[in-house]
Specification:
Blueprint: H1 5-8, H2 11-23, H3 32-44, E1 48-53, E2 57-63, E3 69-75, H4 102-119, E4 125-131, H5 139-145, H6 148-151, E5 156-163, E6 171-172, E7 176-179, E8 181-190, E9 194-195, H7 205-223, E10 230-239, E11 245-246, E12 249-258, H8 261-281, E13 285-294, E14 297-299, H9 301-315, E15 320-321, H10 334-339, E16 342-348, H11 370-387
Helix pairs in contact: 2-4, 4-11, 7-8, 9-11
This protein binds nickel (II) ion.
């Protein structure tokens, strides 16, 4: 790893900071302590700070007054789950845990901000975006709805996520689709309740649910081009309270994931048509409600190329995967990529110890990659601001 020498000197400070964030995780839109800490550090290094975007979001700005502008985004929120780790920096907040490494993402971007404020060689504007509520609460969209890219000029935006299973010291991305879109839905089925002994007097929503679950699996297999990856998973099923009562209602829930916006439209439309059609055939009613949604992460090819060049400069060509296979997991950074060119990057979190999968109670961010991540941000910024041609 060819980490920037000055940044390597920050290592102990970044590890302390990352572990402090890990010990004090905060849920979506409640990242008050985190946002305060981020703001205070940025100010102490002379970075201009704007707070309160999407409640707890923070934007730091460094600018030489003219030239192109680049935005670097980290997420700050934790997950509502109990931590199983027993090390000293384990979560002090019951039922809340940094199980996705956003503590590491925040620390890596802070490391870059400190270096760029003190030693950066650039001409232009750098935006450090610390986003709240990435985990299924729409923080990126809300920052954009509140005028993120109107209030702050940005020519391109870049994001980074740690990736367990990818060796520490490695990077991976690809041009085009990289992470799937997500559309979570609930289906409410209204039948007619009756005694379990007299089904002919009611409309059984449980039997209809069973038929509907099977029918929904035909959407991907019969309505979608086999060359297009897509998945519909039913992950919730609630109905009934007694052995001798056919309930009046049943509720299903699940998620749709794919990479192509046109396929996404078909999937969302067919869910509604199939639910309404199956229910109608039995005299019941279906109401389909869409909840959390995010578009696919689609990298701009030129930005992905730049990101790979920079990663190669830092980590060496053998540590950079420039055509990683897209993953079905989603990420709301996609909303920012809908507005601006840019690229999302995976940084290896290692395998085995410290590389345990994300959203797992034994997960921990790998502190060995903190300075590498900060170095990537710095080199990317310096390369972009020296190369960017702005229309
Ligand atoms: Ni995450």
């Amino acid at each position: 790893m060819a980490v920037i020498t000055e940044i390597e000197k920050y290592k102990d400070e970044l590890v302390r900071l990352r572990r402090d964030l890990h010990a004090h995780p905060e849920l979506a839109y409640k990242e008050k302590r985190t946002a305060r800490l981020v703001s205070e550090l940025l100010k102490s290094w002379g970075v201009q700070v704007d707070q309160g975007i999407a409640e707890t979001g923070v934007v730091g700005t460094l600018s030489t007054g003219s030239g192109p502008s680049i935005a670097l985004r980290a997420d700050m929120d934790a997950l509502p789950m109990a931590e199983a780790n027993t090390f000293d920096h384990k979560s002090q907040h019951v039922g809340c845990m940094h199980a996705c490494g956003h503590d590491g993402h925040t620390a890596m971007l802070l490391g870059a901000a400190k270096y760029l404020a003190e030693h950066g060689q650039y001409k232009g504007t750098i935006r450090f975006i610390f986003q709240p509520a990435e985990e299924a609460a729409g923080g990126a969209k809300r920052m954009l709805d509140e005028g993120l890219f109107d209030s702050f000029t940005v020519d391109a935006v870049f994001g980074m996520h740690n990736w367990p299973g990818l060796a520490a010291g490695s990077f991976a991305t690809c041009p085009g689709p990289m992470m799937a879109s997500l559309d979570c839905f609930d289906i409410h089925i209204a039948g007619q309740g009756t005694h379990g002994a007299t089904p002919q007097r009611g409309i059984d929503p449980i039997m209809i649910s069973a038929e509907l679950i099977g029918a929904l699996q035909t959407v991907v297999s019969r309505n979608i081009d086999p060359n297009e990856p897509a998945v519909i998973s039913i992950t919730k099923m609630h109905a009934g309270d007694a052995h001798n009562v056919i309930p009046a209602q049943a509720h299903l829930g699940g998620g749709i994931r794919c990479f192509n916006p046109k396929i996404r439209e078909i999937l969302c439309r067919r869910i509604v048509e199939v639910a309404e059609g199956v229910c109608s055939a039995h005299g019941a009613f279906a109401e389909v409600e869409f909840l959390t949604q995010a578009p696919a992460v689609i990298n701009t090819p030129e930005s992905a190329e730049l990101a790979c060049q920079v990663a190669t400069d830092i980590a060496g060509g053998e540590k950079v995967v420039s055509n990683v296979a897209p993953v079905m997991v989603s990420e709301d950074f996609s909303y920012m990529l809908e507005k601006k060119p840019g690229c999302f990057m995976f940084i290896g979190n290692g395998e085995g110890e410290g590389g345990c999968s994300i959203h797992n109670p034994n997960y921990d961010f790998n502190d060995d990659v903190l300075t590498l991540g900060s170095s990537y941000w710095v080199k990317l910024t310096e390369s972009f601001l020296s190369e960017a041609v702005v229309d």
